[in-house]
Amino acid sequence: MLIAGISIGLAVLLVAAAGVFGIRYLASRDRQPAQAQQVEEITLKQAPGDGPPLKFGGTALYDACSVITIDQLAGLGVSLDPKNGITHEHLDGDVPPDAAAAQSSADSASYCAYVLSNRNSLRVSVRQTPFNTAADLAFLQTGGTRRPGTPRSEDGLSLIQWNDAESTTQHIDLWKPDLLINVYIDTHNPGPYGTMDVQTFATALEPLVKSAISKGPTAPMRHVYSGLLGKVKSPCEVMSRAAFRKSFPAHSGEAAMTEGTFYPAASNRGPEWEGQISCERHNIVPNGDLNEAEYRELHVSLSVRENEQAATEHNTLLCGLTSRPDIADVVAVTPSVGTGRTCMLRIGSDWTLQFQLGHVGVSIRGPLAENPTQDERRALLVPAAQAIAEAGLIR
């Protein structure tokens, strides 16, 4: 999980440097009150998932964001950092038994991460068989050599709370033979968790996890916006199976894992309102991303602005660049996709495709690779972009 977290963090930072990833809800400081546009407030809520729980090889899976929810944290007096996103990873559909290849021990059947107001993260990871092998699950349930103490038994579950000084995290581990739920609470930054210290906070979370296990698996929690972002499709709906299949026709698979990022609130910067949401989709293959021969992924980020003019200005700015410290090169793509200019931005050693659809800026990047050429990346990303443009972004 640490390696995966570092990889995701580095990828986010690289794209953020280009100004095409992250979140900003921006209100101008320069507009006079009489001239300011009336913009509907953007709020994020969680809502129960639709339908039954998703199944992997016939086994219903627990959803990590349903184990500990935003409302439950608020009930404990713990708020989120408005400038950091909520990460939610889960299947996008049932995986039949013949396609339900076990993933690596580092992969979770579902994952949810919140950044709290004290800037420490709270992460929930769900591992289950057959998504994870029985041997991997049994090994992870032992906790390794760094976990001190003896688990206790409660209501048919094994449970232990412990502190890892090496990684500065407080842990809650709960399990039964076919299930392991890990809760990690960072302690890097000082400050209370609401009115609690970290151990008291972790103790308050224990009954929430036990209750979720007792309730049983549920459909993945939905992250629902009002206002500007409420009119745009979910980013994981935008990065659809059809778009993924266009770029990877031989690696689309029966279903996939999607990892959406959603930001809860606003900052007060810049000339216009903007909201950004994103999603990464990858296929289901034996051993997950350790299987370099078959594993494939695509990432989409949507910058949603007040109107098409604002989106066009941003699109023109990005695709009209020659270079800047965080962008090594900009290459026009013709014919263009969507309603504005289309270009490839080289950020570090990789390329991102940028285009516009109405009042939304769209950026797509592929899997991490060592120095891919611009032509290679264009051939990979343009088909997905065309599929996204054809399907549209508005609900």
UniProtKB/TrEMBL annotation:
**Which source organism?**
Lentzea sokolovensis
Question: What's the protein called, per UniProt?
Answer: Uncharacterized protein
